[in-house]
Write a structure and sequence with these properties.
Layout lengths: L14 E5 L5 E5 L8 E5 L2 E4 H16 L8 E3 L4 E4 L11 E2 L5 E6 L2 E6 L8 E4 L30 H18 L7
Parallel strand pairs: 7-10
Antiparallel strand pairs: 1-2, 2-10, 3-9, 4-6, 5-6, 8-9
Length: 182
């Protein structure tokens, strides 16, 4: 891995923001980025788990009322999370993908986004948000990657979502209702 960059809230020269086919805006490689490079720090407010749950509930209510309801919260440890919803946190523009180009690293309580593989100029930076299985129906996925189940859930639990969707499809066939991916 490359050396840890100095903390900054500026957008690194290696990336740019732009319209994304995944969701609204995204972050893109301006130039070649080598595998393992730490690209950008994910900044935010350090909050307790209780405050994190409160903020998530507020965003879910906003989404249910027809608003955007975006989530920018990273788990730091057993007691604290990082809320990156601040406008000056450019890393919040990195979208989820079930076939990510990057990963998140928790290094001494700081979140960094690093390249999982070599990235070419113009390629969108994405990482797997890894949401818990218990919350999968709350988080639709629009990444379009091969193997995407239509919901943002940690990679190791996608088989369970597939099973639930298959089970719901059977119910829908019998009753005319059920849950389906967006």
């Amino acid at each position: 891995m490359s050396r840890l960059p100095l903390p900054t809230r500026k957008l690194p020269a290696e990336v740019r923001l732009g319209r994304s086919g995944v969701h609204g805006y995204g972050m893109f490689a301006r130039d070649f980025i080598p595998q393992g490079a730490r690209i950008i720090e994910y900044f935010g407010e350090r909050i307790t788990k209780a405050e994190s749950r409160r903020r998530e509930a507020g965003q879910l209510a906003l989404r249910a009322a027809g608003g955007e309801g975006c989530f920018y919260i990273f788990a730091l440890n057993q007691r604290h999370d990082l809320d990156g919803s601040m406008a000056w946190n450019s890393a919040r523009r990195i979208n989820h993908s079930c076939a990510p180009s990057c990963e998140s690293l928790n290094l001494r309580g700081r979140i960094w986004i690093a390249a999982l593989r070599d990235l070419t100029a113009g390629e969108e930076l994405t990482f797997d948000y890894g949401f818990d299985y218990a919350d999968w129906p709350k988080h639709p996925c629009r990444c379009g990657a091969e193997g995407c189940v239509g919901f943002i859930v940690t990679a190791g639990q996608r088989w369970r979502v597939r099973k639930e969707i298959k089970k719901d499809a059977g119910r829908r066939t019998k009753s005319g209702g059920g849950r389906s991916p967006p």
